[in-house]
Amino acid sequence: MNGFIWAAFTCYSLSVIFAVIIGFMYLINPKLFHYHEWALGRKWDELGLKLQTLFAAFMKGVGGAIVALGLSIAAMIIFAFRSGAMWSYYVIPLVSLIGWGIWLYLMMFIKQKTKARTPVFVPIIGIVLIVIGLILSFF
């Protein structure tokens, strides 16, 4: 791998590591994050058992999906991108930008509708890493 491809590989890998860490945070967190409580206007302890169960299930589902997507992209990075498979130069950024873009959309949607302080920086960091990696991969 030349220097630019190595730098793209690094950007993609950092994006995946970041996503998987955040995904695990959603997966293992036993209650809502602060911005969820802000959006709901209620603390976790104020929710009934049924709502707590529903929200916990949603968070575990989202976390699991993020981890699965991150690990799938990691496999493409390790096995296809690193070996120079040209299709991976397009598929990795495409799939990554769809995932991060949906995440950014959801953060912005929640922020707009509820005025909650959503962590929009999380998907923005992921998007920036992927765009930099995409640009570098074509040098």
Summarize the helices and strands and which ones pair or pack.
Elements: H1 3-28, H2 34-40, H3 49-81, H4 86-114, H5 121-137
Helix pairs in contact: 1-3, 1-5, 3-4, 4-5
Q: Explain this structure to me?
A:
- It is a single chain.
- Helix content is 81%, strand content 0%.
- The protein has helices at 3-28, 34-40, 49-81, 86-114, 121-137.
- The chain is mainly alpha-helical.
- The chain has one domain.
- The mean pLDDT is 96.
Please mark out the parts with pLDDT under 50 across 5 or more consecutive residues, or reply none: none
Largest sheet: none
Strand content range: under 5%
**Range of helix content:** over 70%
What's the structural domain tally?
1
Instruction: Name the overall outline.
Output: elongated
Structural class category? mainly alpha
Q: How many DSSP E strands?
A: 0
Radius of gyration, in Å, reads 17 Å
Average pLDDT confidence is 96
Give the helix tally.
Answer: 5
Compressed to H and E, one letter per element, the order equals: HHHHH
Question: What's the multimeric state?
Answer: single chain
Distance between the termini: 11 Å
Properties at a glance:
139 residues, mainly alpha, 5 helices, elongated
